[in-house]
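Chapter review: from sequence to fold.
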Amino acid sequence: MGHWKDIMLRGAVIPLQQMAMFREQVAVLRGSLSSEDRARHELVRFGALLHENGFVAATDGNLSVRLEQGRVMITPSGFSKGMMQPEDMVVVDLAGGKLEGTYNASSEVEMHLAIYQERRDVDAVVHAHPCTATAFACNGISLEEPICAEVVMTLGKVPLAPYATTGTPELTQSIRPFIYDHQAILLANHGVVTYGEDLMTAYLRMEAVEHFAKVTLAARQIGAPQVLNPVQLEALEDARRKYLDRRPTKFERPGLALETLWPQLARRN
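The token string follows.
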């Protein structure tokens, strides 16, 4: 009961915590936090965004980041993603063994670890249940038709992994064939997992999957979606390569500007 009382009390005082959260975010921007403390705050921030955008409900979903020395920081089991605190996070090794934290790691930690094992370029994973994309997954329909130019450039195909029980080794095995060649995967009768070089990228890919699902649904309701032809796809691929060549690497990107952060915090008040 103590765990649930703690969560209920947090829900009651969330409006009173906004200025404290703002000060913590400013500290992140000013570089006064260690990389691990920064990871804790980012997990809180992007968990809250998942909750605010309706990509998760109740205690659904989980997020993680890769740390140094073969460690992973992941959200705790049984928490609303809109009510987490930095100190709630759990650190595990790449075999799933708990290294730090008061609570248990997410029950789907093995899925996260499989992605880190398959993709050394990936440093963050987000799993959620956005409504429209999950509806496609529940109907056994992948999001692989190239009908939207922007999605072709930024996300690519979103395959459908076969159904497997959540939190089991079978779920990990069901996604392995798709991890290397994709940035997002639909989980049959379950949800979506996205990943990338940082939490911002992984989160934005989750937004992109849900947006693409909505576009696909609307296009099918209106009529027959027009699939891009091979010539058009090749031109988009050329444009994508040029964009990636111009884009700064994650080590070159400047820190998030305060004016970018402020509207997000203001919307919560």
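Two observations follow directly from the output. The longest strand covers residues 191-196. Residues 250-269 have pLDDT under 50 and may be disordered.
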